[in-house]
Amino acid sequence: MVIDRTGLAEFLRRRREALQPEDVGLPRGLRRRTSGLRREEVAGLCHMSTDYYARLERERGPQPSEQMVASIAQGLHLSLDERDHLFRLAGHHPPARGAASEHVSPGLLRILDRLHDTPAEIVSELGETLRQTPLGVALTGDLTRFRGPARSIGYRWFTDPTTRRLYAPEDHAFLSRMFASNLRGVVALRGPESRAARYVELLSERSEEFRRVWEEHEIGVRPHEVKNFVHPAVGPLELHCQRLLDPQQSHLLLVYTAVPGSESYERLRLLSVLGAGELGTELGGTESGTGAGALG
């Protein structure tokens, strides 16, 4: 496919001008003259330089890679149809839709953008964390930094002991059952050639505990609404987890809250002041993994 520079530039300008700062979780400010977002704001959302993004709008620069186009589509909060159109304008075939897609819907992103003072994350059906709020990073570490099988909390649970430090020891046995049960459900849904099936093979090779739990053939072990964290900076946290499903993409928005007036509520407020700091790496675990995929 050939890049349509004029069409790409016009589409980017129109989408940028249609977005307001509050649509993407940015402050409006007092001296805003543009009708939509500024180029530097979009560039920040897309994790690229302002100069690079500006050249695209001016029909200049190199053809953006598929990874760059995906980042732009997510930064501009594009729908799936708009994302696919952007890929074609940039001279690429659109990526697959459905469970394998990592493109988060604009609706979930808008909700996440408004949860700046709440721990929250968007995860795939395989337990890959795709987006986190700042307080979410402060709670669990930066979980988006993992690569390969280790992107999945279920995979890390059985292969990286540091993953378990954040969870109350009395919950470990249940969580092992839950992660194995979830994986079994995804394998049944996606088939023997799926990534989930591949991770069953990898975990069976690497973890005796996984083999033992997997042999129980449990299905439908649901997560508890209340999760017990053990945070290295603020101590024990009893948090309620609310789940919002995007059925089209099989993505879940997880929101963690504490009962007002409780000890956990005060500790969560303290965590919001402390922020992630140096805790991101410590909380996230140590294994980076290779390849593609996840579970959990």
Automatic annotation (TrEMBL):
Residues 36-83 form the HTH cro/C1-type domain. InterPro entries: Cro/C1-type_HTH (IPR001387), Lambda_DNA-bd_dom_sf (IPR010982), MLTR_LBD (IPR041413). CDD domains: HTH_XRE. PROSITE patterns: HTH_CROC1. It holds the Pfam family HTH_31. This is Helix-turn-helix transcriptional regulator.
